[in-house]
């Protein structure tokens, strides 16, 4: 399949399950490439590649959840073609929830489960002040405090000028989007970092309002970006959660 929205590093036409992975703000499909090592034989990994990154670097990034969903839903035939699991980290969790909700709302196949990593429940307001619109230097300082953008990019003026439009657009979505609470008819597994100061315990527990089934919670030693610092552990947990599907 030739489609820039989906990066499928190891196509598996015999797969009986697709794992759709939604990266965090500023993230790209490369985050999930190490997951190919040990990927169960019946699963095909599909990394979502929104404009402004990877092979879509020169395309303007979406700056609203509505625009992101419009593009995703234009490919709903592929998304619902096989049984699927949605995994997202931070903003990616909220995109994955909204996509699952829109599929359910329009009587399409929903994913078998949603794995929400490193995120407050999306119907809760952002508890931090918005910063996507800050002047250049202040915006850079906020990025540094998040510890998610590689130092080599932050300190490279030319690279930062290239990535700033994407980062501002992603954080505009992250700062402003708030979902309508709707309980999905699927299980939700919630992954969180024990040292994540950006996601509070009550914001994790609030995911229960978005599932008609009991949620499960799984902790990792790390801050907001435990998906990177504990990559092998996160991958192992995700594979464990979906191995029997």
UniProtKB/TrEMBL annotation:
The Thioesterase domain, residue ranges: 18-234
InterPro entries associated with the record: AB_hydrolase_fold, TEII, Thioesterase
Signal peptide feature range: none
Pfam families: Thioesterase
Example of a GO biological process term: lipid biosynthetic process
Recorded family membership: Belongs to the thioesterase family.
Protein name as annotated: Thioesterase domain-containing protein
Organism: Pseudoalteromonas luteoviolacea DSM 6061
